[in-house]
Amino acid sequence: MGKIIIAGIGPGSKEDITPAVLEAVRGADAVVGYKQYFQFIADYVKPGSECIDTGMKQERERAEQAFALAAQGKTVVVISSGDAGIYGMAPLIYEMAHEQGTDISIEALPGISAFQKAASLLGAPMGHDFCVISLSDLMTPWAVIERRIVAAATGDFVTAVYNPKSHGRYWQLYRLKELFLKERSADTPVGYVRQAGRPEQEVTVTTLAAFDPEEVDMFTVVLIGNSQSYVSNKKFITPRGYYNGKAGSLTLKMGQQIMMESFRTIEGELNRHDYPLGHKWALLHAIHTTADFDMENILHTDDEAVERLYAKVVKGELKTIVTDVTMVTSGIRKGALQRLGLEAKCYLQDARVADSASADNITRTQAGIRLAVEEHPDALFVFGNAPTALMELCDLVRKGKACPAGIIAAPVGFVHVCESKHMVKPFKDIPKIIVEGRKGGSNLAATLVNAVLAFDDAAQLKPGRDL
């Protein structure tokens, strides 16, 4: 009695064929496979070995021929591209052996799968839990495939997509993108590789929103990142564990681990997943601090407000943060201030404030803002308590006495609160983050500052660096 060896020959490069597979091919009495794959192993087939190559969609016929040859006492190698057990010939061979009740010896040799080759070319996208989905509905009903797509998207799996598109199957990849965008951020990394390991190889990294299915064909493998995936130096990376960016350190403080897990939970429960990165980053901080998902409705950020404010910090254009009350100052992370060379100040306890408030019959927070504007007219002004202080700043801006680098408006209460927030909106040239309506608070204002100061961690969804 002969033997059948099911061999995965890799994605298409001779360098990616394993030594065990090459040894099996060299020793085979017969090699059976799809005709396009023989070009990769022709140099290794021994003289006199019988080569049986058949066309597309003739898998069952190839399996039957392999069993017939093995029954003649021959050692038969059945070749599959990639790994024979992943959308390859191995399941069919084993099923046929079970159906026939044969005692022919069967051995499977693993190969490098197309998604593994694609992943290595893209960087390290498969670093955490992943799944592989085929969009071919020839043998699997589309309804089943769609349920698997939804499960992968909601489960935050890195997802490899096989058989993404063909001449007759053109819409399925569009549907997959639509389903993923309901669960994943628009800036989720997507990488795709065409003809991996072959001379025609093409490697592309983009985002879920920008991903164009028209650029994909049946020779392409598509990889979609999870909520932690990011792109660095044009490489697609999905971290496996916690890494805080310090050389040689692979651990995080417990507080940051908890915060990261909280952010992932919050992101999964958002009503929308296509927010711009800066807005989403501020929103996640706001919900994390308040446990209030109404923030999704009431948090307003000007276009790229978070990004613009962070850029001012990096360029050294923003050096001072002024708050209306000391509680806000206390909530701004000291590590971030030190790391970025910033100063956070509140004038409420300044001796000059009490005299000014009494003399002008205004609140102490108003007097504090007046004094702050005299000394730091271009600061980032942050309000978490006093609407009168925010109104004072608006008046000083209109008079040309203040030119804030930005405004975070989150005063809380019932008197003049909504009005103060409306008053700040017309300043189109000033980047603003506003908590609409009556809600707000010192803790909320502080966390929005922290979001700005840690914006470079937003793409990786790694909050809490400065805890």
Oligomer state equals single chain
Rg from Cα: 31 Å
- The termini sit apart by 68 Å
Overall average pLDDT: 93
Helical fraction equals 25-40%
Report the structural category: alpha/beta
Secondary structure tally, helices: 17
β-strand percent reads: 15-25%
| Major β-sheet strand ordering | 14-19-18-17-15-16
Report the uncertain regions. 244-250
Main sheet?
6 strands, mixed
Using the alpha-carbon principal axes, give the shape.
elongated
Extended strand count: 19
Structure report:
- The protein is α/β, with parallel strands linked by helices and 467 residues long.
- Helices cover 38% and strands 18% of the residues.
- The chain is built from 17 helices and 19 strands.
- The strands form 4 sheets. Strands 14-19-18-17-15-16 form a 6-stranded mixed sheet, with helices on both faces.
- Helix 8 runs antiparallel to helix 17 and helix 15 packs parallel to helix 16.
- The longest helix is centred in the middle third of the chain and has 16 residues.
- The protein is elongated.
- The relative contact order is 0.09.
Care to give the gist of this entry?
This protein has 17 helices and 19 strands. With 467 residues, the protein is of the alpha/beta class. It has a 6-stranded mixed β-sheet with strand order 14-19-18-17-15-16, with helices on both faces. The protein has a 5-stranded parallel β-sheet with strand order 3-2-4-1-5, sandwiched between helices. Strands 7-8-11-9-10 form a 5-stranded mixed β-sheet, sandwiched between helices.
Descriptive terms for the model:
six-stranded mixed β-sheet, 17 helices
